[in-house]
Amino acid sequence: MSSKIQRWGNSLGVRIPHKLAKNVSIYDGSEVEMIEEQNGILIRPIDAAPTLDELLSQVTDENKPDFIDWGQPEGKEVW
Q: Taking every annotated instance into account, which residue ranges of this chain make up the domain SpoVT-AbrB (predicted)?
């Protein structure tokens, strides 16, 4: 698929065809990251919120929180 680069103020812009944008979940106002690669530019959407797996993959022995004793359950709490 091809598109044309056009001037947008002091920058350059590229139009992303609707079907392609929809297929990769990019919408008006979506945040994207642009990565310079050896053969061009990679544009991909930034997920609004990281998944639990992504967050947990960043936990290391150095940044792992200490155990917290929250005490005995109260009311209908179940531990």
A: 6-51
